[in-house]
């Protein structure tokens, strides 16, 4: 069950919260859940929850609420977690290697099929079962094992160039873990996971307290 | 040089972009940079950049701009990346282990001193030089190797309970990688890195295209 509606970003941020919560209920063998219950558990307005879930054409029953099992499957399917999406990791350094070893991503529909690097000591090896190729062989790899998502974990000074190469070879989405603000053409999907900004936020708030 | 001003979140998000960019300039041995140049490179309004940098009491010189070396050091110091902050990882599963192995975090001031898990096969081992303890021994570990940041990579159903335990033992900041919306008391620093929401965003935008 894949959707082709462009969902608002705030909705896409909240839907995984609902999924996490109803998965817990499912594990506890709870059968039904109301938006009021989800609202209390997650501190999100109940009307907002009903609105978010209406994108999935899911409607709760009056007084009973949503069926937990159906909600888990519909949410996971709708979010794309039940479909395999092939990805490359660019930069087999410490973070890139960590992501290739993180088998948990597969449960969320992300299949890393290849890694790229320029370091001759890394090229030809595997990291967590993912083969590492030289960036110069990307055309051949794309032909043999195509992917649509490029995970960017290269050093900042190579971030833009690497993204350009990846997109030139047919990558449609860049998941950027570098602190560099990569520019992409319109139509290319861009998601920034700002690990370092989150660290800066934590440090700043901790310092302000002490 | 540590700041004790509470910075606005958008500023804390942008400062690491500036740092990444000026680090590239430094590597290229560029001596000065203007806010107009940063603005063009990063697609951020020049007046916004000047405003963000004014928090650091840094003022550019007319016509010349900011000294690159000083900007790198001041930004990195101000963001807390030059100070060591001790952290625990809760949950030595696939993502937790990946973070413990990611030596890159140390360059950004994060020192992971211990990991916690309940799996007897993991307790007593080390992951990327980080010793793994049973969550029940947290009091002793806190006494011997105190930390202020708790990185949460446990399964969703344990997220809230684990955060509660960590905070009860003196952890002041939770860096939450789980999709569960953990609740914390006022005064506790909370940062969510929503890996799964970013994946959902990528999948949704890719599907909408095809």
How would you describe this protein?
The structure is a homodimer of 210-residue chains. Chain A is of the alpha/beta class and 210 residues long. The first copy, chain A, has 2 domains: 2-78, Arc Repressor Mutant, subunit A (Orthogonal Bundle); 85-197, NAD(P)-binding Rossmann-like Domain (Rossmann fold, 3-Layer(aba) Sandwich). In chain A, 43% of the residues lie in helices and 18% in strands. Chain A has 8 helices and 9 strands. Chain A has helices spanning 9-27, 35-42, 46-54, 68-78, 94-101, 138-144, 156-168, 195-209; strands at residues 32-33, 66-67, 85-90, 110-117, 126-127, 130-134, 149-152, 173-176, 189-192. The first copy, chain A, has a 7-stranded mixed sheet with strand order 5-6-4-3-7-8-9. In chain A, helix 1 runs antiparallel to helix 4. The longest helix of chain A is centred in the N-terminal third of the chain and has 19 residues, at 9-27. Chain A is globular. The N and C termini of chain A lie far apart (49 Å).
